[in-house]
Amino acid sequence: MTRSSHKPIAVSISPVVGPVSGTVRVPGSKSITNRALICAAMARGESVLSGVLDSEDTRVMVDAWRTLGLEIEWDLSLETLRIVGCAGQPPQANGDLNIANSGTSIRFLTAALSATRGAYRLDGVPRMRERPIADLLEGLRALGANVQSENAERPDCPPVRINANGLHGGVAKVAGNVSSQFLSGMMMASPYADSPIEIEVVGELVSKPYVSMTAMVMKSFGLVVESISDSKYRIAAPECYQGCSYAIEPDASAATYFWAAAAITEGRVRVEGLDFEAIQGDVGFVRVLEKMGCEVSHGRGFIEVAGRPMHGVDVDMNAVSDTVQSLAPVALFARGPTRIRGVAHNRHKETDRIGDLATELRKVGAKVDEHDDGLTIHPLTLKSATLDTYHDHRMAMSLALIGLKVPGIRILDPQCTTKTFPKYFDVLGELIQQSPRYEFAS
């Protein structure tokens, strides 16, 4: 086929013969990278970050701070980034920032920039204009921020206009049922308020381990979050992050696809650089595989999964909601149904990660029941299919795993993995000892 474009339109993974076995190391965590970038950018002094993820989401964050005048040197080959912090006030006090479809970037930057002085506008791709942010804006307004949506059709969504004159401090409430990133963004901005801040979470807090992650990153930059209760946090202010050297862990969410590959093929895959001391809650995904029948071993700096005959489970995945798509292909090869609960907020991510996931699983022959808070996957005889990814990196990476056992699985728009894992298909290909077969537009 003649290649008329450098961007592949589809990729196929041929079924493997026998178990998949090997060792992989995944790139740095997107979640930690973007939190560290916020703290380092707002800090006093220079920070050096190592293990920095190079992806669409992290480039969006770096480009935003560069637009606002910060000095940043990023060595992609060494995965290190040097940034001179602005001590809470960017040199360029206004900017029109393109956030693409990076939820962490728009939520964290909206909060951080509200604590400065200046005028900013944040916007992104069409899907971004469908992703709720009203709860964050309301919480920031309670602290004195001048922030508003400019979306006439959906006033709870971006674009966001910030006419920043700092945060007064005080008490704010934020809903916890859509995204923990609202709370994380407010936490990271709080030290720059005029007085201490208390934030109360209203309702159930989803993805709670990510809030713990935020607090631990903040601590590394010199500031402590006080947990008054399970739903209330206190942050001292006015304070300032201090520049430091900070090492970013490998991405636990990315690791789950390779542990899933071991489960699906009854192989054995070790991921290096992660263990149960990691600050990322998504390492808990392996405990779900363990409940299904897999064996898990671990030590300092590694977690390994050995696949075994599996049975379906009934599991609440609220704390590890980004790994629902990783579990879905595994469930197709288990005995009996798998019920996934507690992830109603997944409908508000890069795509509807409940409804759209169900649609694609049905294409390969599964019976899928949708629920308000998740789905039930009934494994049946599977068949070949061309699967849509909805420009969602997690859809592409997870659905490709079905091709390890089922011939004729074709994944559209594989380039969407650049959001968090640009080399995903190459790393997967090395593990299964075959080159991914890309198709290009003719």
CATH third-level topology of the largest domain: UDP-n-acetylglucosamine1-carboxyvinyl-transferase, Chain
Instruction: Report the principal-axis shape.
Output: globular
Percent of residues in β-strands: 25-35%
Major beta sheet, specifics? Answer: 4 strands, mixed
Poorly predicted runs: none
Percentage of helical residues? 25-40%
Report on this structure.
- Helix content is 28%, strand content 25%.
- It is α/β, with parallel strands linked by helices and 442 residues long.
- It folds into two domains: 8-27 and 249-440, UDP-n-acetylglucosamine1-carboxyvinyl-transferase, Chain; 30-247, UDP-n-acetylglucosamine1-carboxyvinyl-transferase, Chain.
- The strands form six sheets. The chain has a four-stranded mixed β-sheet, with no helix packed on it.
- Helix 11 links the parallel strand 22 (385-387) and strand 23 (409-412).
- The longest helix has 14 residues, at 252-265.
- It starts with 7 loop residues before the first strand and ends with a strand.
Blueprint of the fold:
Blueprint: E1 8-12, E2 21-24, H1 30-42, E3 46-50, H2 56-67, E4 71-75, E5 80-84, E6 94-98, H3 103-114, E7 117-123, H4 134-142, E8 147-149, E9 160-165, E10 170-175, H5 180-189, E11 197-202, H6 208-220, E12 225-229, E13 232-235, E14 245-247, H7 252-265, E15 268-272, H8 285-292, E16 295-299, E17 302-306, E18 314-316, H9 324-331, E19 338-341, H10 355-363, E20 367-371, E21 374-378, E22 385-387, H11 393-399, E23 409-412, H12 424-432, E24 437-440
Parallel strand pairs: 2-15, 3-14, 6-7, 10-11, 18-19, 22-23
Antiparallel strand pairs: 1-23, 1-24, 3-5, 4-5, 7-9, 8-9, 11-13, 12-13, 15-17, 16-17, 19-21, 20-21
Helix pairs in contact: 1-2, 1-3, 1-6, 2-3, 3-5, 4-5, 5-6, 7-9, 9-11
